Amino acid sequence: MAFWWPLIVLALAYGLCRFLFMLIPVNVPSIDVDVSDVTEGNQAQENSFIYIPPRGRTQQSEKKVQCYEPATMKYLGYFPALSPSEVEERVALAKKAQTVWAKSSFKQRRQFLRILLKYIIEHQQLICEVSSRDTGKTMVDASLGEIMTTCEKITWLLSEGERWLKPEYRSTGRSMIHKRARVEFHPLGVVGAIVSWNYPFHNVFNPMLAAVFSGNGIVIKVSEHASWSGCFYFRIIQAALAAVGAPDNLVDVITGFAETGEALVSSVDKVIFVGSPGVGKKIMRNAADNLVPVTLELGGKDAFIVCEDVDVPHVAQVAVRTALQSSGQNCAGAERFYVHRDVYASFVSEVSQIVKSVSAGPPLTGRYDMGALCMQEQSERLQNLVNDALEKGAEIVARGSFGHLSEGAVDQFFPPTVIVNVNHTMKIMQEEAFGPILPIMKFSTDEEAIKLANDSRYGLGCGVFSGNQRRAREIASQIHTGIAAVNDFASSYMCQSLPFGGVKDSGFGRFAGIEGLRACCLVKSVVEDRWWPYVKTKIPKPIQYPVSEGGFEFQESLVEALYGLNIRDRLRALVTVLKALSEQNSGSSTSKRSD
């Protein structure tokens, strides 16, 4: 005890010092961001009208990205659709800035993150309102999906980011015991990110944070469906970078359509894409011309499995939340519900009651549980999926209600809908819906649930619920997805130390977590002499040029000495190796004396 007592005291003193150090406020400067043109009521007079986008065609023939509120159809303004030459100019500027930023210290990078975090916490309502106006989601959904996830990523990077970017030492194996081996993580250059509309704040900040913290520059093409918010969020990033003395143009946000995205892919050193499988394949083809590495997150059709031993009311609440969050805008949302037949009726009843209480409407004009669909003509597509299911025997058992909708915005809303008697011949169980629909199907055994969950071309995530955690874990382990949650859904995304991504048509590669951070790096393997200059690497004489007559026999014995399966054979081979070296050395000495 006398020996351990001083160590215990030292440990307690160290812990107390760390705690007290945490209480010391960090000096984080505030930043000013111009919000005059994004706050409600301050819009320019020429933009204060209802915008009716042309149906049946895209805007890609135009030179402008037109922006409007999907929940009210109020016009927000427009942004230029950049040409390929303009994109190349922006990337060139970012590359020039990145050569300076690559030499920045982790201290400077952490200060950048702290400034962002401070601004986000102090301006949560503004950030959520901008996201709500541009995509139609509610303030609560914006806070959950935009603010919390981004703050979690920043705090993880502050806590662990430097650790995972420092050189990592590895074992050298038997033949290189006299060497030291490590992995170094260097910036790639400029990352190009093409992001979707569903989480405009987080989808901009997520790749930007990883890229900038790892020493890269980044150019982000925001979705044409969320350009207004993305360009405002860019101002926050610019102000924070300027506050830490970062070079201009290190981060850029560009707007446009397919042509703009294609030009970005061919100009950068790494591509991160969040979108559909069809566009993802085009990204890959374009990236292949210059062998640019690609990370693809292509959506999902996530399974939500409910065993018979669950707390049905609780799981029903989780099911509705994840299906309806952001009006189905959650790219990791549940879209297929498999419920054990013993609790099927009670689960459907609970879910139906909740859905009937849900009201949808313009999120900033009243207290609504669900907002609008972001994309034009999405409600028509959702109704076609529902009609296909009804024609094949499915039944609607519950629908939510609408609040006050303006005449021009009616098509931007879809009522939350519960469908039963579904099966896998129906499109609603195979195609990514991106809508507030809960199709519920029965299963009898765990094996059947696993088979149904794996019967999909997507493989992003899944959630399994059971009163027996071991059982839920076992089911989840057999579902072929990149993400799984046990007795929860999509919770893995709040654990920012974990990678995010899928398999099959959900894409490949990972962002977030250690893997996502290092994916923004040139991963370099380095080997050097461990005891330089006292022990230097030399080629053994038997295999020096010209190779001696016994060169192969020497190499054969060396292999067995290093990797033989039993100690006797290895010792015998070692004696042969030492003997060969001795004979070569003595022969060399005799040759020198005769000379």
UniProtKB/TrEMBL annotation:
Positions annotated as active site in the UniProt record? 297
Family from the record: Belongs to the aldehyde dehydrogenase family.
User: Can you say what this protein is called?
Assistant: Aldehyde dehydrogenase domain-containing protein
Q: Which GO terms describe its molecular function?
A: oxidoreductase activity, acting on the aldehyde or oxo group of donors, NAD or NADP as acceptor
Query: What does the UniProt keyword field contain?
Result: Oxidoreductase
Check the record and name the SUPFAM superfamilies matching this protein.
Answer: ALDH-like
Q: Which domain of life is it from?
A: Eukaryota
All residue ranges annotated as the Aldehyde dehydrogenase domain in the record: 60-526
